[in-house]
Design goal:
With 167 residues, this protein is mainly alpha-helical. It is built from five helices and four strands. The strands form two sheets. A two-stranded antiparallel ribbon has the order 1-2. A two-stranded antiparallel sheet has the order 3-4. Strand 3 and strand 4 form a beta hairpin. The longest helix has 23 residues. It starts with a helix and ends with a helix. 38% of the residues are buried.
Length: 167
């Protein structure tokens, strides 16, 4: 499986990159977006595994295309609404939903690179969901974890230096 720290780095990097590149790099907005991205990864990983006959396996409740994004959006709306009530600036709900959507989508992307893949809806009423993967890398693949973590770190670094650059 892709490690949780790898999920966190790629999600945080993508969220920071999206928010800074769209002009939403103010510290409260960025902080709320990053918090939601982190919490979304935690939610998907903590609630998203069930005990199978050969050990833990991904659950359809959080590892299904579109359903994962619903979880990220709901969490984003909750965090963003609470943050706007406490901190008062506008744009926090949008930033939080962006973090939730980015994290949930990238979480599934990373998991789709492993052998068990993710769940995708089908049109077949007898089998509404099926397992799907883009690659069949082994669980705990050091190459996959290192590559995704490096991409997340580079995106975070780019977003950070973008914030420091004079306008």
């Amino acid at each position: 499986m892709v490690k949780l720290i790898t999920h966190a780095l790629i999600s945080l990097g993508a969220t920071a990159l999206i928010l800074t590149q769209t002009g939403h790099g103010a510290l409260p907005v960025l902080g709320v977006g990053l918090l939601t991205a982190y919490l979304t990864d935690q939610l998907i990983d903590r609630l998203g595994h069930e005990q199978g006959p050969h050990g833990p396996r991904r659950s359809w409740t959080t590892h299904t295309v579109l359903l994962a994004q619903v979880w990220g959006t709901i969490l984003g709306l909750a965090v963003g609404t609470a943050a706007e009530q406490i901190l008062q600036p506008n744009g926090l709900i949008a930033a939080a939903v962006t973090g939730g959507l980015a994290a949930s989508t990238l979480h599934l992307f990373a998991d789709s690179l492993c052998e068990a893949g993710i769940y995708v809806p089908t049109m077949n009423p007898a089998h509404r969901l099926k397992r799907w993967h883009m690659a069949t890398l082994p669980y705990n693949s050091p190459a996959l974890n290192l590559t995704l973590a490096l991409l997340g770190f580079l995106a975070l670094a780019y977003a950070y230096f973008h914030l420091l650059a004079p306008a």
